[in-house]
Amino acid sequence: MTTSLATDDPSRVRAIERWFGRSARDLPWRRRRTGYAVLVAEIMLQQTQVARVVERYGAFLRRFPTVRALAAADEQEVLAAWQGLGYYRRARSLHAAARFVVSEHGGRMPRTIEGLRRLPGVGRYTAGAIASIVYGARTPIVDGNVQRVIARLDANDDPPADAATIAGTWRRAEELVAEATAPGALNEGLMELGATVCTPMNPQCDACPVARWCAARRAGRQNSIPPPKPSPTVKRVHHHAVLVTRGERLYLEQRPARGLWSSLWQTPTIETPRRLRLADLPVRLPVPVTDIADVADFEYRTTHRRIRFHVFCARSRARRGTWRRPDDVEDLPMSNAQRRVLALLPRSGAVSG
Ligand code: SF4
């Protein structure tokens, strides 16, 4: 590790604050700075791209405009409103956090780091973001963008996923926020800098407000700092999704409460490490079927899985279970992968049986 900025220069912090004041993107969660609105935005942004969050954030807040409204909602309603954002565990945590705020704090968001960190799904980063951005607390935040900016400013090429590196970055962020005139603006400025200028590859150093203090730039090592993180292990699996129809209705089932896409709705889907033969499928389905046939295949990736979807259609006369018209499933929370499966439903043939 190189610490070429052992003596900190407070003007570097001012430069980031001023730059953020004139360059901040106009994002919807920057227009409404309440603890609840920022909590919703930060939880959404944890694992979803900004552009996708921009599309969904407004609709979610219109549906649940206050922490009380969210707390009073049914879980399936919350999951349905979360559609398109993925990683539904976050929706459940947000819902649980809203209920906690109502039951433990009378519906008022806690303002301290300690209080915020007691909320389900709220870790050091999210608590720091809410406390500094909404309530002006002098507390640091470190996400992937901030970590990259700090590593480059210091020309620190320690492995970014190591616990010691992460702890060191938090200490550096703490030193920076100690010098801030507006802690929230500094924190958001660091994140914004990482998101828009100090990008993972080919950062725009000529447009950077802290270029003159940047050790990685001086060394010409912007693209090699921080070093890449090891790729996660990816498991290959096969999902056999069967579009079972009875007349104009489609059979749907709910996934188990634990594991991937927990409690979301889907067409009956058999998950195996190897591809199954068509003849092996009917006995594994929840209702008796006839006329089973291939429809299409596609690949779907998550962080830890490479899933080969094999989509089939079949007819059934069964009455038990949940049957819906295919154009009447919007209110059911479903993974994006299962929405793709549904889009493959033949519009004639199997449905007209
Ligand atoms: S000078 Fe370049 S590498 Fe250094 S912080 Fe700015 S954008 Fe990042």
Structure, explained:
This protein is of the alpha+beta class and 353 residues long. The chain has 2 domains: 10-218, Endonuclease III, domain 1 (Orthogonal Bundle); 235-352, Nucleoside Triphosphate Pyrophosphohydrolase. The protein has 13 helices and 7 strands. It has helices spanning 10-23, 35-45, 50-63, 67-72, 75-81, 89-105, 113-117, 124-133, 144-153, 163-178, 183-196, 215-218, 336-343; strands spanning 235-246, 249-254, 265-266, 269-272, 290-301, 305-315, 322-324. Strands 1, 2, 3, 4, 5, 6 and 7 form a 7-stranded mixed beta sheet that branches. Helix 9 packs across helix 10 (163-178) and helix 9 (144-153) packs across helix 11 (183-196). The chain is globular, with a radius of gyration of 24 Å. 35% of the residues are buried. The structure holds iron/sulfur cluster (SF4). Iron/sulfur cluster is lined by residues 149, 152-153, 197-198, 203, 205, 208, 210-211, 214, 216-217, 222.
